[in-house]
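Teaching assistant here, posting this on the class forum so everyone can see the example we discussed in section. The complex has two components, and the goal was to see what a joint structure prediction looks like when all of them are supplied at once.
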Amino acid sequence: MAAETGTPTTLTLKSNDDELFSVAESAAILSVTIRNMVEDGCAGGVIPLDNVDGKTLASVITYMNGISAIPADEEKKKSYRDKFLSDKDFETLADMVLAANYLNMSCLMDAVSAKIAQVMEKKSVGWVRRKFGIENDYTPEEEAAVKEEHKWTFEGVETDDDN
Amino acid sequence: MVHYYGIHGTESEKIIPSNIPPEIIEIILSKLSYAKSLLRFKTVSKSWNTLISNSFIHSNHLQSSDNSPGNLFLSTDTYGTDRGFTLVKFEVGNIHSGEISVENIPNGYDRILCECNGLLLLTSIYGEKLEKSAYNVHYNPKKDIECKTKL
């Protein structure tokens, strides 16, 4: 239970693969999930984050630290987010969107989902199925019919780059 | 391992198991800039088709792609069939009533009465002669929703 005068300024977060991370409380509470734990007085010891692995949590903490160091300037925050996400591959982005959702970080959630959408924009249907792990449950006839209905949307699709 | 039918029939495709829940996929899809991509991804699977036909995405999409002209499209009626509407490429600059150029003239519904926020009000010149087909067709290209109103 956090005492009124003794709220810790550093929190320890634990990933689901048992990695420990120290992070400033002021940065960590960008996560509403963590903020609620702090407010409920549950953040005295180690905060277990059962849905986030160490690699992803490290990345999220880099983001927390980076974005909270920027003063209230939405332009600068946006440019930080763009830069932060620019070199992330699809798998990393997918892990991050799940982490952002679990941690209830709306700004990261918005930015990562927008980035994933941007990556997907000109991709083929096959690419999307592979990356999202989606089973094609159409029969060949059904698939051909849906494709025919939206034929023009298949123009200008990039060649797959993941094989 | 999810069985995968490759679009090009490729064998032994590696599938990363899907762990992104539909509600997050919905958020991602709502952030696509182009209706063109959104409609193409209806072919991904039946559940994606359902998801993309869901009005939530479209209202999100309408909001987020308001400033993305050039990807609008227009439906055309297909007489005598239940197939409903097919899509026609629709070149657009600034849209003003009566100044819209359409690549293919919609079958029957060839008069654009007005446009508002991507919603077209179409009518048929034959409507005046043939009472039976005297409908206005409302079609929102981004929402992919159409309804007919009897005049």
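For the discussion questions: The interface with chain B takes residues 91, 94, 97-98, 101, 109, 113-114, 116-118, 120-122, 124-126, 128-138, 142-143, 146-147, 149-154, 157, 163 of chain A (CB under 8 Å). The mean pLDDT of chain A is 90. Think about how each of these relates to the inputs above.
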